[in-house]
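User: Sequence in, structure out. Go.
Assistant: Echoing your sequence, followed by the structure tokens.
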Amino acid sequence: MNKMKDHGPGAVPRPVLIETARGMVECAVWGEGPAVVALHGAMGGYDQSEMLARAALGGSGFQFVAVSRPGYLGTPLAGARTPEQQADLCAAVLDALGIQRAAMLAISGGGQCALQFALRHAERCWSLVLVSACTAPLRVKLPLRFHLLKGMARLPWLTARLRDNAARRPEESARRAIPDVEMCRRTLSDPLAGPMLTELQLSTMEHLALRLPGTQNDITESRRAFDYPVEQIALPVLLVHGTADEVVPFGDSRSLAARVPNAELLALQGGPHVSLFTHLYEIRGRVTSFLYSHRPL
């Protein structure tokens, strides 16, 4: 295993490639305390997993493992296409790092993997937090922008130009993610949420071609028929979801909360798919208190 770089105050965690019993995985590891594995969504990578941890928890008080899921950046897709295989890969990552138990913190397309980890490795999962997460088959039509980005990935100079333009005019990208004009303005003007939202949107155009295999696989897996036996999940679960989510229906989290014995639902009124930023402080407060209340002794 490669040596981990320390993630000091204000520093950006550096990714490493670790060899596990199930193959190579890219991740960044930092902090001290009970372990939390952060799982990004579509168009992501370890950098967006790190951002999820930073947004939802402030990035302190825990040992974080920010993973590039299979098909994203430095983690190969081969052999880990299904949520079940990805959950087993997460367990192998913990083995390689010498971590016995961890909470799972997942957003959007990382939800299926997190649910499967809670089911397949229940003895190693001390809590589960799902933010705007995919927990039921999706039927939403893919936006035209995704198809355009797939074509642009073959032209790095073009994606670099698009990224520069987006950096100069972050409000244009933000309006696509936040339809409510006032909510968009308020989020962008916030000194913490605004820069993080812009960082997320710019990151998707960094190494775009290395994010697409995993994204396409997530799209395929999210549209398969699946009905996990979630009634068997006995550990504490927190579901966080915006009521106006245009990508993953709010009703999916509401239905899951009714089926999982120890589940709590934080419904964010009017929140879009990027509620992590539009409702940053509400989410951070609830996720932090939830994980601190259930952290192992």
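User: And one key feature?
Assistant: The beta strands are 16-20, 23-30, 35-39, 63-67, 102-107, 125-131, 237-242, 263-268.
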